Amino acid sequence: MTQKKARYIIIGAGLSGLTTAFKLHQKGETNVLILEARDRIGGRIMTENHIDFGATWFQNHHENLSSLIEEVAVEKFHQFSDGKSVLVYNSMAPAHYFENDPKYPSAFRIAGGSAALIEKLASFYTEQIHTNTVVSEIKEVDNQIFISTNNGNYIADKVIVTIPPRIATNIIFSPELPAHLIHDMKNTHTWMSNAMKVGLTFKTPFWKVKGFSGTLIGQIGCVTELYDHCCADEKTFALMGFVNEALRDLSKEERKAKILAYLQKYLGDEVLNYVTYEEKDWSQDGFTASSDIKSIYMSPRYGNSKFQEFYLNGKLLFSGAETSSIHGGYMDGAVFSGLKVAEKILSQE
Predict the structure, then answer these.
(1) Which of 18, 97, 100, 273 is the most buried (most CB within 10 A)?
(2) Do 104 and 162 share a structural domain?
(3) Per the structure, how many domains does the chain have?
(4) pLDDT at 201
(5) Torsion of CA 167, 169, 172, 173, to 10 degrees
(6) Is the overall model pTM greater than 0.90, yes or no?
């Protein structure tokens, strides 16, 4: 078993952790290691086959994310929304069609998928990100922090935990964290933990040809939200959306059949000519969802002030989308929390 040392160790190679690492790098601090439990980086940002199965959109008021994207020279583009959109409000009634008001700009997406930002941030630390590394214990000994993982032990001066607070309660902390903090960690909803997404690619964007935007909204349907998901360069044509959680208990084939029939009804027979069909159920992702997962239909409260404090005698900080006091649960919140943590630890030096 190995034992590695670093001045700063970041737990989690998602957007928040990589933002902190990037800011440390900019200040000339390269004595950093990033430990990631998954076999990939990005956390709840996940782009596969050009489809974003995790975090996808942002808007003009998400200034922290927008500034970071510009700073690292990643391109953005508008979410396509021209044409007829479909609203399904009653399964027994015909669909209602509407068009988006052009006065209100659509959301943005990241060219190349949201993972393009992750890859750019991680490019500064190619040798210092350790994947497949699950942290089991964080212990203060003398004036250092010892971290136990399945891939050996690590020693750091300071540790930043960026994984969802509820998931972080699986780690043994020594000395123990305050009981009130543990309580709040366990009761902080994990963004995306109850979501299931579906993505389909096609040889042509048939919906655009037919004058549709690709948007389909209907809380009663098999797919509660669907959007055009073509790439910025218009070389990959896709639709992506959120699956009704009521379908979670079906087999994948049963669910797929229902989803295709539903989309066929409202978008046309061309849906059946898909090239690829993929799903991502975040409730089955053990590094995102806990066993007591439950649906959240109101916006959960994020940014608990307890997450802004230092613990383990000034050696431990929390970060991540759920900890952010600004736009918690969004990519912008993850970036904001990452920036704030970097500021805090650098101001101590």
Answers:
(1) 18
(2) no
(3) 2
(4) 98
(5) 120
(6) yes
